[in-house]
């Protein structure tokens, strides 16, 4: 098979063995090709908190709804080897496939047998060998080709109209359709007889049985009312049984209406001499109110009362939806990036949408939620600020919605003034007003309060929204809020040092932390943090301009003064080797990369960062000095956020890479490309890649913040491309 020039494609010769990804020094494109052999990707509707996860060998994907990780189901996509043989090859997404074995084993029928040894079914379903499978992946499409079978999953991306817009109805209905689209193509032009193909899954919900779905030209299989695979092909038949051998062994067609067992297939016979494509909708639906104590249900219920309605709409609109998603992908422009960056952005976009919920409460108020991946915390504010640019670019009302709900329901006052909670709750349970699910008193590390940083985060996320959208009416309407935020920021620096000096009284005998809660004090401590100092500088600069815009000149002058004090604090901390300490109180301590992060946020909120010549020069000198092995580079060339911690977060690396190249003038050279290859390699870990996009990488191994939405910080790379 020829090697494609498509930068996203993995071909048989590019597949890595189970031992994992190539080193950071591999040739351009090889890291992506190796990743595509093992990486799970979330194929997710927008706002449905659902995912058809696929890509990692074995039973590590499936149809998940409201989960903090892959469903762990067999996904069954296969083709008969030869006409009438009853021997099938399948894509390797079922239990045992990762070991190269077949799907034989102890049948689930054994649960119903007493006294007899269970029978093993041998050799009916085999996994295509890795060298025979190629994969092509973009923001909207994920395609596997093996022999005469091609399987493509199409996922949505694009604008989501504001529900408050009276004209948004039809477009919003399409944008929030809780389905992804699938096309299965079989080339039997050389066949001497008909060959059987199938697509299905093995359900994993112990409370819902598998069922046949039929009517109005549709044929499908479903698990209860929540997930389904449906086709409009008139040739398809549904089949349910204990396992694949039980269903597909010769002579069983009359038993396909069986109701026991959790393996459900849609079966198609492809005539000799023909090449046929069949379309499917992978559908999700939850009708009930699913959150508490504020009762909300999915907004899509306005148009889709059940999974059958979802399937009918998806299949009827298949061509229109596909075309719209392709246009949106072209507008996003990820394909214009180097292949390693294009892969990481596409991968991150899919995981972001897998965590999203578009909800409507009992009073008809719309609530946008981004769940925190495996942790499922609701609208974690230190994620919101990092996701802000992507949201403001794609569907800005969602960012405004989160900001407004934080201000109204999840803000509070401590001794120094206004701030915002870490989150709004967890796992569909909203926290009491003014409280988070996360923050606790008396701690100095994980689960302590993030009061100072969340204040800066809310201000900066508001700034990203306002700058990206030009929503001057929203700015003017929040004049009092900007004043409140400024006073609270100033009160936490009573001595005018330009840095965060006073922890909230809410911590008691503890200490405030930052979003880097699982790192050591180099990044985890808020007080005296150079990272937070530069972030506060960005907040002051945006507040200065905004307060002048709304006629608050005196307050704007105070914001400008403290922005200057923050710069002075940073410049005064530069050491003899040109680097900055992580903590101003510890000049000999750790060195960190995220000290530059505030510069990116300043740029995204409209600050002319180039005008801050001294600050830019200091940060550029610092970054050049620390991005070396032994400090802030791993041996494979990947970025290390802190010189004293092996825990590195990809979302923050992405933001730092953008800052380095676009704002600090560091070259986009072979070292940068080697880092990209290393980061792809981290995501392609031979076992942990089953978690799709993961954020926290411990010495090259994804270990936390898995199935995570935050990687869309990589959308800032599009600004580099646009400026090229």
The count of helical stretches stands at: 19
Structural class based on helices, strands and sheet pairing: alpha+beta
CATH architecture of the largest domain: Alpha/alpha barrel
Rg result: 27 Å
Strand arrangement within the widest β-sheet reads 7-8-9-10-17-14-13-12
Any low-confidence stretches, pLDDT <50, length ≥5?
A: 1-9, 11-23
Regarding quaternary structure, what we see is single chain
Write the layout of secondary structure elements.
Blueprint: H1 30-35, E1 41-43, E2 50-54, E3 62-65, E4 75-80, E5 88-90, E6 125-127, E7 133-137, E8 141-146, E9 149-154, H2 169-175, E10 179-188, E11 195-202, E12 210-215, E13 218-223, E14 227-231, E15 237-241, H3 244-248, E16 263-270, E17 274-284, E18 296-298, H4 307-316, H5 318-332, H6 339-354, E19 356-361, E20 366-370, H7 381-394, H8 396-409, E21 411-414, E22 417-420, E23 425-426, E24 429-430, H9 451-469, H10 472-477, H11 479-491, H12 521-524, H13 530-549, H14 553-572, H15 597-604, H16 613-626, E25 647-649, H17 650-663, H18 670-683, E26 696-698, E27 701-704, H19 717-723
Parallel strand pairs: 5-6
Antiparallel strand pairs: 1-2, 2-3, 4-5, 4-11, 7-8, 8-9, 9-10, 10-17, 11-16, 12-13, 13-14, 14-17, 15-16, 18-19, 19-20, 21-22, 23-24, 25-26, 26-27
Helix pairs in contact: 6-18, 7-8, 7-9, 8-9, 9-11, 9-13, 11-13, 13-14, 13-15, 15-17
